[in-house]
Specification:
With 477 residues, the protein is mainly beta. The chain contains two helices and 23 strands. It has an 18-stranded antiparallel β-barrel.
């Protein structure tokens, strides 16, 4: 599909005088160093981002292309392939048709649901690339192939319908020492259930009123983050040794939600609410062979299935985000505040209790539940508060921005101070100070386990080592 879209794109560019061609983009250079020891943090960034579009009568084609840059070593000056991983990322390519009743589009697209900024629990269509969560929020979404239909109805009513083939998961880096979020387990591809080619679908209906905007949403799809599904235990041919094959899946999840936007006396109030119902499904795993990499399997065959267990995790939960925007008097700046969080309504799961010759497994499925769909902020805190203040001076050539995130439950904090300066037309220079404060009194390391620091499972503790200063130069074209 990418190949055919690119061929169409090139042909349309050369049809001068027939099509309206437009484009924009930027080049981007980063320098990120830790506050603790001034060492270089090797996270990726978009070296080049290019947007282009072509219009012809009632048709429009758009694409968004980025070139990702990620250092392999501390040699920031070495831009060779031996020292840098370059990755071409075609984030969007889609064709739209605009009939009299609305819009029809097909292709790979970045979608936006919800009314609040950044952390909406309704904005679930695109999975998240966590690499960009703390550096370039505009780059976090991963494009999805989709078909959409927008209907513009009388009385300022809009209906939006969407269908997406296949399933795309969040990109959470594995075992990257430069990234602050750590997964509790490293999962191999063979450990996932085969999903086939699932279809995800949903839509919303939007009402524009004199002082409010109301929107109701529905979505049916699969979690963006994986969860435990079950386990098989195999014995060797001598019925002496055993191995455990842990199996993971992406649960089927349905969402019902709504958003409200209100305007009054210079204050804008936005609110998003989403209710989720998720279920592990009933796929059988008894027939799965053992494909694990346990060292003992190099010497013995494990062909005898001794036991099968299903955690059978299902749950109902909700997430919310309330946002207030206010332009301060006397042109003192703009203030934004967000309150976000999630709550479990009901969680169910099987208790696994298996006795074997030399060990016993006892697990409660309810202890392994966490939301697999919703706001990315739920990864950081169960309930949080965000403040943002922005002020521009000297004819908007300098912008000062301060952001503060507080975990209301466990008291972790993130602070960000950013200063941007417009050096000349289309050229911006910015400096950013990013500081994380954890809570190692509550989430401490277990001295009995030498190969793991349990305190780092609390994200704000890992943010302490991720605290950094960043310089960024952007040229827009």
């Amino acid at each position: 599909m990418i190949k055919y879209f690119l061929i169409l794109f090139v042909c349309m560019i050369h049809a001068e005088g027939i099509f309206n061609f437009y484009h924009s983009g930027y080049t981007n250079v980063y320098a990120i160093n830790r506050l603790s020891d001034q060492s270089l943090i090797k996270v990726p960034f978009k070296l080049i981002n290019y947007d282009a579009g072509l219009d012809y009568k009632n048709f429009s084609f758009k694409t968004k292309i980025g070139l990702e840059h990620k250092l392999k070593t501390d040699k920031w000056y070495d831009i060779s392939n031996e020292n840098v991983n370059y990755k071409l990322d075609i984030r969007e390519y889609y064709l739209s048709y605009f009939p009299s009743f609305g819009e029809i589009s097909i292709g790979k697209k970045l979608h936006s649901w919800g009314a609040v900024d950044a952390s909406s629990p309704l904005d679930i269509l695109n999975p998240i690339d966590y690499y960009y969560l703390f550096t370039d929020p505009d780059e976090t979404k991963i494009g999805r192939e989709s078909i959409t239909l927008d209907l513009f109805l009388p009385n300022d009513i809009k209906m939006h319908l969407i269908a997406m083939p296949n399933h795309v998961a969040n990109n959470i880096p594995k075992n990257d020492p430069d990234f602050p979020i750590i997964l509790p387990a490293t999962v191999q591809d063979y450990q996932f259930l085969d999903m086939g080619n699932p279809i995800e679908y949903g839509g919303y209906i939007h009402f524009s009123l004199p002082k409010n905007d109301l929107t109701a949403y529905y979505f049916s799809g699969y979690d963006r983050s994986f969860n435990l599904y079950g386990a098989n235990i195999f014995m060797d041919d001598f019925d002496v040794n055993s191995v455990t094959d842990t199996i993971f899946s992406y649960r089927k999840t349905e969402m019902i939600g709504f958003s409200i936007v209100g305007f009054n006396s210079g204050i804008t109030l936005r609110s998003d609410f989403a209710y989720f119902k998720t279920d592990a499904g009933n796929t059988e795993i008894e027939s799965r062979p053992y494909l694990g990499q346990d060292p003992i399997s190099d010497f013995l065959d494990f062909n005898t299935l001794a036991a099968t267990s299903y955690l059978d995790i299902s749950a109902q939960y909700y997430q919310y985000c309330f946002q207030l925007e206010y332009g301060l008097p006397f042109d003192a700046g703009n203030f934004t505040a967000q309150l976000f969080g999630y709550e479990k309504i009901k969680v169910e799961g099987n208790i696994i209790d298996i006795e074997l010759t030399n060990f016993e497994i006892y697990l409660d499925g309810k202890d392994f539940f966490y939301p697999g769909m919703g706001s990315s902020m739920a990864t950081l805190a169960k309930q949080g508060l965000v403040f943002n203040f922005t002020k521009t001076i000297l004819n908007n050539s300098i912008e000062l921005q301060f952001t503060h995130l507080l975990d209301l439950k466990d008291k972790g904090q993130l602070h960000q101070l950013k200063l941007s300066y417009n050096l000349m037309e289309n050229l911006d220079l910015s400096f950013l100070l990013y500081k994380g404060i954890g809570n190692k009194n509550k989430y401490a390391d277990n001295s009995e386990t030498e190969d793991m620091d349990e305190s780092l499972l609390y994200p704000f503790n890992t943010m302490e080592n991720f605290s950094h200063i960043r310089a960024q130069l952007q040229y827009f074209f």
